[in-house]
Design brief:
By secondary structure, the chain is mainly alpha-helical. It has one domain. About 60% of the residues lie in helices and about 0% in strands. The protein has two helices and no strands. The longest helix is centred in the middle third of the chain and has 26 residues. The relative contact order is 0.19.
């Protein structure tokens, strides 16, 4: 799950928790919203952790090989 997917889950969860006032029989939309918020936050944190260990596009110093002639 990428950062963009996590942000979408956070947005959907926030909408269900704070903006929707509809009721559905047998389903708590507020609980589903909180679950989506929590899963989204965990996804963002895991994406950031794995992104920092991945190294990116040449962001870290690479070993230089120097040839002497």
């Amino acid at each position: 799950m990428g950062i963009s997917t996590s942000l979408i889950l956070i947005a959907l969860g926030a909408i269900l928790v704070w903006a929707v006032e509809a009721t559905v029989a047998g389903i708590s939309l507020t609980a589903i919203g909180w679950i989506l918020l929590i899963v989204g936050i965990i996804g963002v944190l895991l994406s950031l952790i794995f992104w920092s260990t991945w190294g990116g596009f040449g962001g870290r110093d690479r070993e230089r090989v120097v040839e002497y002639r």
